[in-house]
Amino acid sequence: MHKQPADTVIVLDFETTGLSPDQGDRAIEIGAVIIEQGRITDSFQRLMNPGRRVSSFIEQYTGISNAMLQDAQDCSSVMAEFAEFIDGYNLVAHNASFDRRFLDAELERIGAGYPGQFACSMLIARRLYQGAPNHRLGGLVEYKNIPTDGVFHRALADAEMTARLWLQMLEDIELDYGKVELTFRQLQQLSKTPKAGVSGYFNRQ
DNA sequence: TGCCAGGCCCTCTTTAGGGCCTT
Predict the structure, then answer these.
(1) How far apart are CA A170 and CA A153, in angstroms?
(2) Which protein residue lies nearest to nucleotide B8, measured between its Cα and the C1' atom?
(3) Where are the domains of chain A?
(4) Which nucleotide is nearest to A96 (CA to C1')?
(5) Cβ of residue A136 near strand B, that is under 7 Å?
(6) Scanning A22, A30, A63, A158, which has the fewest C-beta atoms within 10 Å of its C-beta?
(7) What is the pLDDT of residue A1?
(8) Percent of the residues in chain A that have a pLDDT greater than 90, as a whole number
(9) Which fold has domain A9-197?
(10) Does residue A20 reach within 7 angstroms of strand B, measured from its CB?
(11) How many whole angstroms separate alpha carbon A119 and alpha carbon A78?
(12) CA dist list (Å): A79 to A86, A132, A171
């Protein structure tokens, strides 16, 4: 799967009750978009009931209230649906180590898995846009003048912004290096390349 | 009740500490 092109991926984002599934935190919303050959072709968005109340901080941060979650499907049924949605695709997220931990934890609860690999848009952006004031998703969207609908910290909106950032990075790489068929694996490896060596990375491929 | 992570990356580094990111 890692030999697949970089312009065909699923970009995903979780909203959660906190920062760590190891500390008992759960997912409360999943948003994702499919990018195929450089175009967004489909999306997935579900709220999910974590079985307990979320903190007022999370209500304020995400705009997802306890009232909204009360009527939502259970995590297990949403995640079973989502496992089918991502089957066959490589995955992208902004600060992917965070979303991967929650994806792994929620799927493990229902005995499901996924075949794809993860790439992190934040680690790649830190290398490509070393002059950006910061590498938060919102900061990068502003830095690259990527259009938004003004919604932040909701799963589908953040997944769409990350998808547009991903496409922007592919475009910028091709502009700088003239590479026309980037593989997912190349982007994964870029995210692990020492920052000082990034300028020649694609010329050496 | 109160508390709460983990990986990356820089530097005044490697016998460590702290900022950046994610909710």
Answers:
(1) 24
(2) A123
(3) 9-197
(4) B22
(5) yes
(6) A22
(7) 65
(8) 88
(9) Nucleotidyltransferase; domain 5 (3.30.420)
(10) yes
(11) 23
(12) 10, 35, 32
Q: Report which residue type is found at A47.
A: L
Stretches in chain A below the pLDDT threshold 70: 1-3, 204-205
Distance A179 CA to B23 C1' (A): 36
Alpha carbons A67 and A69: distance in angstroms, whole number: 5
pLDDT of A99-118, one tens digit each? 999 999 999 999 999 999 99
Bridge partners, residue A27, by sequence: A16
> Where is A29: in which H helix or E strand?
strand A27-36
Residues near A107 by Cβ (< 8 Å), separated by ≥ 6?
A79, A83, A113, A114
Nucleotide in closest CA–C1' contact with A133: B20
Q: Is A168 left (phi over 0), alpha (psi -120 to 50) or beta?
A: alpha
Q: Which amino acid is at A12?
A: L
Question: CA-to-CA distance for A79 and A183, rounded, in angstroms?
Answer: 28
Pick the closest to residue A172 from A138, A139, A201, A193 (CA basis): A201
